[in-house]
Amino acid sequence: MAQPLSWFVPELKENEETPVTNDNTNESDIPGSSFFKLASECELNNDFSGAFANYQKGVKLLESAFDELPSDHPFKENYRNKLSDFRVKVLRLSKKTDLQHRRAGQSGGSHHRRTQSTFTSSNSQTGPPSSDDWKKDDYTKGVEPPDQNNNHDNKKNQKKSEDNPDAAFEARLEEDIIAESPNVSFADVLGLNSVKLALYETVILPALKPQLFTGLREPGMGILLFGPPGNGKTMIAKCVASSCQCTFFSISASSITSKFVGEAERLMRTLFRMARDKAPSIIFIDEIDSLLTARGGKSEAESSRRIKTEFLVQFDGVGASTQTNQEKQVLIIGATNLPEELDDAVLRRFSKRILVPQPDFDARYGLLRNLVQKQKNNLSEEDFQLISKKTDRYSCSDIKNLCKDAAMGPIRDLGVNIVNFSSEDEVPDITIKHFEQSLKNVRASVPPDRLQHYYDYNKKYGSIFNLSNIDLPPELRATELPPVNM
Ligand SMILES: Nc1ncnc2c1ncn2[C@@H]1O[C@H](COP(=O)(O)OP(=O)(O)OP(=O)(O)O)[C@@H](O)[C@H]1O
Ligand SMILES: [Mg+2]
């Protein structure tokens, strides 16, 4: 849990005039101020990447403090103004950094400097960021806290990153490690019992009882989640991130690709090395088809081919017998809507390929119940059954959209009278009439032939399990509400 950020808010003395204008907040009082000072120093010295990194860190701190402030807090407006100023600076600097990087060529100079300058301004008159600031910054996970009294460590870190030519890549990938727990759990995920069991067998059990999972029982290294959009591929990966005690890298094409020749492969290599170093770890690659489509196509760029080759090599390296047991504990989870476009060699490496299907009747019913119970409604058991029946072919996210639309029904009914309502309790209930209307507005988003295509693909290449909620270990079961009015 993140610590409360209330201490970031400068205390107001009793009876003191509250500052309300942009100019009343002293820049040195605002959260993240030490980073902002460092950043402006870097900027003066033309170290744009250093400035960029420090502004980013300052902005993160200021954002968290801003979110913590109640909306009527006198500093709210000041923080908002400062935030927008600093965000503009970050944007402007990101362009300059790009330019600086391009000039530095392949040596990766500016990125390298960027990581160093974040905490290593030993000559800085304002001093490094305070260790309090450091604690609050989620984006510095894995970076040693700065020691205010001793610059020796900072110099040591600088030396370390000079020795390590991949330091810039590591810094970039550090940003893709999910440090805080995403706000979802397996109980929120309806259906998907086979996906849950596969994850249980491959990730959770082996972590709990490693001594049982040796030899033939050694867990596979790759799980591919495929299926129509909006049914929980990304969501379930977030559940894994929040429930397992692993380092979780959430990677997308933009984290790995680069416009500089040779950099993308190095990023891929660095990713796997970091995953091994920080094992047990999970590399989750969302929309994996955008990175690893079949090789040899006419329009395939040379760089894209090299990324795929590097991926295959690194994947094989993960389970190599030369590695220690700990280094072997790296799992790769891929998610895609287009499994047929993946390279065959990539597909082979994902030993479990699991369809994340459209929700069946029970899953639709459960999802409807879970979503609607959060709002005032007078739907009966029969109503829920009826809506579940009528939403055949709807994806989970279609159902979510349907519920959102129906929830707007009572507001639409009120028309201009809405201005007379001040509390949510006064708004009338959602009824079946609203759902009937919304069923005309919100339609299923995946065409039937496309769905059939996924089922056919699953028959050919998928790992097929048939499980119900009750077959799962209790901690993975979805929340099931009892029938209405019982
Ligand atoms: N099985 C599910 N149970 C409950 N809610 C779900 C489920 N699947 C999807 N949702 C809802 O739909 C939203 C979108 O789901 P998600 O992003 O995981 O889909 P996806 O399969 O990754 O889609 P895409 O292929 O387009 O990336 C989720 O944030 C969640 O609110
Ligand atoms: Mg997704």
UniProtKB/TrEMBL annotation:
Recorded superkingdom: Eukaryota
Which residues constitute the signal peptide according to the record? none
Please list the residue ranges that the record marks as compositionally biased, kind Basic and acidic residues.
132-141, 150-165
Name all AAA+ ATPase domain ranges: 219-360
User: Is this entry keyworded Cytoplasm?
Assistant: yes
Pfam family name, one: AAA_lid_3
Q: Where in the cell is it found?
A: Cytoplasm
Report residue spans for region: Disordered.
Answer: 1-32, 97-165
Keywords from UniProt, A to Z, are: ATP-binding, Cytoplasm, Nucleotide-binding
Q: Name one GO cellular component term.
A: cytoplasm
UniProt cross-references to InterPro entries, sorted A to Z: AAA+_ATPase, AAA_lid_3, ATPase_AAA_core, ATPase_AAA_CS, MT-severing_AAA_ATPase, P-loop_NTPase
Q: Name one GO molecular function term.
A: ATP hydrolysis activity
**Per its UniProt record, what SMART domains does this chain match?**
AAA
- Polar residues composition bias: which ranges? 18-28
User: What family does this belong to?
Assistant: Belongs to the AAA ATPase family.
Question: What PANTHER family has UniProt attached to this entry?
Answer: AAA DOMAIN-CONTAINING, VACUOLAR PROTEIN SORTING-ASSOCIATED PROTEIN 4A
Protein name in the entry:
Spastin isoform 2
> What organism is the protein native to?
Reticulomyxa filosa
